[in-house]
Design brief:
344 residues; alpha+beta; six-stranded mixed β-barrel; two-stranded antiparallel sheet; 5 helices; globular
Length: 344
């Protein structure tokens, strides 16, 4: 029955994964286009598989606390695409950004590594994009790169948000054929310039693509993460937790006492007097690292400074009894010089 339940759970997980991953294959060749419509992205709405949705901003480009429920600025609401969801260069050969994918079976917040294959200055460069939007006019192997000045596409929220005009923003599809970025709002100028700087002005280059884990920098800007399928296909939400620091195990060298009978760790023993009985199970000890334990520094009560060292292992532990020294007369001291201890 347990095996059946595990198989059933696995089947359910695979089914849910298929509903999220399926629009774009894990790898292949494709095309790129560009757009910037200023509307609330499709992946900013609550939907199965998303642990958090894409961030949105108000008409003043300020992040919305309730963006997931706010209507899009393209349909009379106050939710727009945030300006920081523009592309940016990491170096001359790597860039990050966002894209719209097909709406037929969207892969919201999945990340893809695009390697440009078209001849020209962009050939061989790599761009990692996160799918934050969808479009009915986007094919299954097409990546519509979010880029200010790339054209409105099907919808236009920029005229409302930024008072956009066609003489600066260009055509509905593709935007302007010349660099008009200096005439754009300040928050969008750098993203607009990406096309002319990092891409070398190339228009709609072809790519080879593959699904990858989302870089933390991308997730930090979009706010979007996915559950329901495994890495490397899934974007990874950044974490700040750290593993506990492992303390070095310390050892103490002592003169070996005379052989004595052994006791189990659960027994108690007397050291230094009738009121000095100590339960080993409650005394501080160093835990062996052999089985993956975390070593903590041994802390011994001051009353036991002269007592023995206790080492509690993962298996049954052995406790060596202390050696009790008998009083020696001054007259016999010279004769017993070589005897350090006596039998217990």
């Amino acid at each position: 029955m347990a095996s059946f339940n595990r198989l059933a759970a696995l089947a359910a997980l695979l089914a849910s994964s298929a509903s999220i991953v399926g629009a774009v294959a894990a790898s292949g060749s494709g095309t790129t286009t560009r757009y910037w419509d200023c509307c609330k992205p499709s992946c900013a709405w609550t939907q199965p598989g998303l642990t958090s949705t894409v961030k949105t901003c108000d008409i003043n480009d300020k992040p919305l606390a309730n963006g997931v429920t706010e209507q899009s600025g393209c349909t009379g609401g106050n939710s727009f695409m945030c300006s920081d969801q523009s592309p940016w260069a990491i170096n001359d050969n790597l860039a990050y950004g966002f894209a719209a994918v097909t709406a037929s079976n969207p892969t919201c917040c999945q990340c893809y590594r695009l390697t440009f294959t078209s001849d020209g200055p962009i050939k061989g460069k790599t761009m990692i994009v996160q799918a934050t939007n969808t479009g009915n006019d986007v094919s299954g192997t097409q990546f519509d790169l979010a880029m200010p000045g790339g054209g409105f596409g099907q919808f236009d929220g920029c005229s409302k948000e930024w008072k956009a005009t066609s003489d600066v923003w260009g055509a509905q599809y593709g935007g302007s054929n010349t660099n008009q970025c200096s005439n754009f709002p300040g928050a969008l100028q750098k993203g607009c310039g990406f096309r002319w700087d990092w891409m070398g002005g190339q228009s709609n280059p072809n790519v080879n693509y593959e699904t990858v884990a989302c870089p933390a920098e991308i997730v930090a800007k979009s706010g979007c993460s996915v559950s329901g399928y495994s890495a490397p296909a899934s974007p990874q939400q950044p974490t700040t937790s750290k593993a506990p620091a492992i303390q070095p195990r310390t050892t103490t060298t002592q003169k070996a006492p005379a052989p004595t009978p052994t006791k189990k760790a659960s027994d108690s023993y007397s050291a230094g007097g009738e009121n000095s009985s100590i339960d080993v199970e409650d005394s501080p000890a160093t835990v062996s690292m052999a089985d993956g334990g975390v070593s903590e520094p041994t802390s011994t009560p001051s009353a036991m400074e002269a007592g023995p060292t206790v080492d509690v292992g993962r298996e049954e532990s052995v406790v060596e009894e202390p050696v009790v020294e008998e009083p020696v007369d001054d007259d016999e001291q010279e004769e017993d010089d070589d005897d350090d201890t006596c039998d217990a």
